[in-house]
């Protein structure tokens, strides 16, 4: 180990793999690219910026618009999830402990840890979500509904439609290595 960086030293003979010329530069323009999927999920709008296919299966990147009162129910999953707060403030609950997360801050949720977030402010929140490995973007695409733009709210659901959505999400969650937890 290098004493300065705590990174294992590579033998002089170690080389990087060749550049994979089948992969291309991915550019995501969430405010102007009409081809990016904007998905309404639990009252929030998630724009899929990069899929696992875009990143060679390493991660996905999601632009999240969370209106006041928005956020998912308690859950956990077997992949890492990082949130980079761009605008606003929300309340994150990690293993039962609540804390405020504000614009300019980044939090990482370890795999399998129970968590949730909620926008308890009066202003929308914008954050980037990185999931590694990818797959969460596929869950959102399958469970959510397409909407027009990055900030378009999903349709309001009556009680019956909400119950149907919850049942669909619960049925799909195991396929995407996710467990929905009971509200505390």
From TrEMBL:
Q: Name one Pfam family in it.
A: Cupin_2
- What sequence ranges are listed for the domain Cupin type-2? 64-131
**InterPro entries per the record?**
Cupin_2, QDO-like, RmlC-like_jellyroll, RmlC_Cupin_sf
Superkingdom assignment: Archaea
State what protein this is by name: Cupin domain-containing protein
Identify the species of origin: Candidatus Nitrososphaera evergladensis SR1
Classification lineage: Archaea, Nitrososphaerota, Nitrososphaeria, Nitrososphaerales, Nitrososphaeraceae
């Amino acid at each position: 180990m290098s004493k300065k960086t705590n990174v294992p030293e590579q033998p002089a003979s170690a080389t990087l793999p060749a550049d994979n010329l089948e992969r291309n530069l991915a550019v995501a323009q969430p405010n102007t690219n009409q081809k990016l999927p904007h998905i309404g999920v639990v009252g929030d709008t998630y724009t899929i910026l990069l899929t696992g296919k875009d990143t060679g299966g390493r991660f996905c990147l999601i632009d999240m618009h969370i209106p006041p009162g928005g956020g998912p129910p308690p859950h956990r999953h077997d992949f890492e999830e990082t949130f980079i707060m761009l605008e606003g403030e929300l309340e994150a609950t990690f293993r039962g402990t609540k804390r405020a997360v504000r614009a300019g801050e980044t939090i990482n949720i370890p795999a399998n840890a129970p968590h949730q977030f909620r926008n308890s402010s009066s202003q929308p929140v914008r954050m980037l979500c990185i999931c590694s490995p990818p797959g969460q973007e596929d869950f959102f695409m399958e469970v959510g509904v397409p909407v027009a733009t990055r900030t378009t709210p999903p349709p309001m659901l009556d009680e019956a439609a909400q119950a149907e959505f919850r049942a669909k999400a619960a049925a799909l969650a195991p396929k995407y290595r996710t467990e929905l937890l009971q509200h505390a």
